[in-house]
Recover the amino acids of this structure.
């Protein structure tokens, strides 16, 4: 009898899902078509590896000069044939030309840092406190933080964030070395290094790369790293993705479902979600 | 001249490291021999994959019944030839027998949960607030959280934590399915599932496993997962590791160095460290 009741309950709950989605998966599936935005192919990069393709969504609002410079590098085929020469466990996968010998053509080798931008009217604030910033939330589809008193906003270092490697000087990077976060959010990097976007598809190809156990996760010989066949700018033919709008009702519901999980597996809701543990749903665009 | 000065400064700073280590690496290297503890081989499990060996340190103080049951399963060769049948990106790698058909012998299939234990006198508190618990810190070498009012202490879900898979009921797990965290700390699982330890060596073998893109990261056919050659209890011959004591002065210095990075690369110290971003240093024992 106990089992039969549970089974009936499951059916009833299943029938009601359309009206009252509970789990993150249900909420994403129930989102209306107009709550999704097409990912702009012109704002993407495609990294082709033997294993498949990694798609990066760029954040020109936060780092216009670096994004422009990287697009120049990519248009010249700068990264083609280079390797992912650093894979540090629980930290980053990094690629480029560590010897800085490859011709950068019309691009610049270094740029002034783009660590913060001004106040953003469309900042969608998370209800929870954050230990690294006065306020956190989402801007333009990206996880971000802000200091209202200073009038500053910046991208947060989360899993899948993409940034610009640099040396000790703030202005020593330009985009000829890039990294993606493959571990626990290294938020201590916020405002210390320029972020330019995030991986929106194919992240599992970077996260599953063999780690280097050498200092800093650098391969002593970059040739040991995974070869990059090419990095190209995306176009309408190659990038057919859409992302859930971060200012949509479904995204708000998703945040709440992650703050307090109400599906039956959870016995004790956390009452909190880390900025970097809010999923940013992306799917193939429906034809 | 500028370069020559920098070079002299570097030498001076190098000479002073022993006295005043600054970076996490320097602090770990400068730790005194008596600040390290030998990892007790009897409290370890060795998982052998084709790629190498993963060493798990068990936490019997937190989950004595589950640890005992897992040790029984392992002594019977329970996991040998099974697979890592779930690898969900930015979440967990999980192994065992999802069909629950394999004979568990003298072990138990399910146990009452061990989500929390009582107050611990040797709780070493982190100075920073935590969004998921009233206080966090370290107990017995493990990242932990506590609620002083409730008199409860529990292990925190961090990168490399190892836990016991369960179904919806709190008492539906027993150790015949285990998981390791391979992504951003899923702290919402704290007090919802029994943790039994952490990976202390070979984590990079689990984190680099190919992901499954099927729902929940489960391989629809468990045989697609990476084969486990064996899981055995460690012994003095196979486990020669030592871990930095979490109640040592060097560990305190390490925490402070992670809260506020003072090496020259960092331009803006964070003033905070996530519990799960404090490294728990482990090294090969010196002969």
């Amino acid at each position: 009898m106990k089992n039969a009741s549970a089974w009936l309950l499951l059916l009833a709950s299943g029938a009601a899902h359309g009206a009252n989605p509970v789990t993150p998966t249900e909420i994403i599936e129930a989102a209306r078509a107009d709550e999704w935005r097409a990912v702009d192919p012109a704002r993407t990069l495609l990294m082709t590896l033997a294993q498949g393709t990694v798609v990066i969504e760029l954040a020109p609002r936060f780092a216009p000069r670096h994004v422009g410079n990287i697009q120049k590098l990519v248009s010249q085929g700068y990264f083609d044939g280079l390797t992912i020469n650093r894979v540090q466990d629980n930290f980053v996968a990094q690629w480029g030309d560590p010897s800085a010998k490859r011709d950068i053509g019309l691009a610049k080798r270094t740029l002034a840092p783009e660590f913060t931008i001004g106040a953003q009217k469309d900042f969608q604030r998370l209800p929870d406190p954050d230990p690294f910033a006065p306020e956190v939330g989402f801007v333009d589809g990206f996880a971000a933080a802000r200091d209202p008193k200073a009038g500053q906003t910046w991208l947060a270092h989360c899993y899948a964030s993409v940034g610009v490697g640099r040396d000790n000087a703030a202005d020593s990077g330009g985009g000829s070395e890039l990294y993606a976060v493959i571990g626990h959010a290294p938020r201590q990097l916020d405002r210390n290094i320029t972020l330019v976007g995030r991986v929106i598809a194919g992240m599992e190809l970077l996260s599953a790369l063999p780690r280097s156990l050498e200092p800093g996760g650098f391969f002593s010989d970059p040739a040991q790293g995974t070869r990059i066949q090419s990095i190209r700018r995306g176009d309408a033919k190659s990038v057919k993705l859409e992302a859930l709008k971060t200012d949509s009702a479904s995204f708000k519901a998703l945040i709440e479902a992650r703050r307090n999980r109400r599906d039956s597996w959870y016995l004790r809701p956390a009452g909190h979600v880390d900025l970097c543990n809010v999923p940013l749903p992306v799917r193939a665009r429906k034809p």
The first strand of chain A starts at residue 36 and ends at 38. The CA atoms of residues 44 and 57 of chain A lie 5 Å apart. Confidence is low (pLDDT under 50) at residues 1-18 of chain A.
